[in-house]
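Shipment paperwork, digital attachment
Item: protein structure file
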Amino acid sequence: MTTRITSRELIVAAVALAGLLDFAANWLAAHYLLAIGPFLLPSGSFVFTLSFVVYDYLRRWHGLRPTLAAIVLGFAASIAYSALFGGGIGRIAVAGLVALACSSTTDLLAQTVTLRWPIWQYVGTSNAVSLLVDTVVFTTIAFAALPPEMRLRIMAGQYLAKIVMTFASVPLVYGARAWAARATAPERAVA
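Attachment content:
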């Protein structure tokens, strides 16, 4: 006998996952700046991209309300991070808050336009646009004290990492949807 979950339980789990990913992205961004070739990027970029993939999943299959709940929880997680850690790290969290507000709004608008597109185009396009906004806003605020050429290296690396992560996660969206369909389907009666 397999365990079935309700659609509501699945939505709650996805919303919670998005919040956890946003909190983890803030922590990683504040503690680890990675050098990959000529690029510099906050390590939270990889995790943050996954939260946007969760938003894409929620918007496509569960609607606007759970997506907004996930965004609000992510915003609350960022506020909690800022309140807990403050100081210089707090500047990173504030940058994350402003960037999340801007990029989440952009993502919702892009999702509205691309909602009926094939999944890979829907996720790829909405993330390409919204994560560009996130990258520019976050890097400009978080690393304002750095020279412009350093900020540009961070922006380039961060955006490239987010795009690679977006396209690498598209199979996860297909897999999550297939799993969710099986997990929420009613049991078939054996006659």
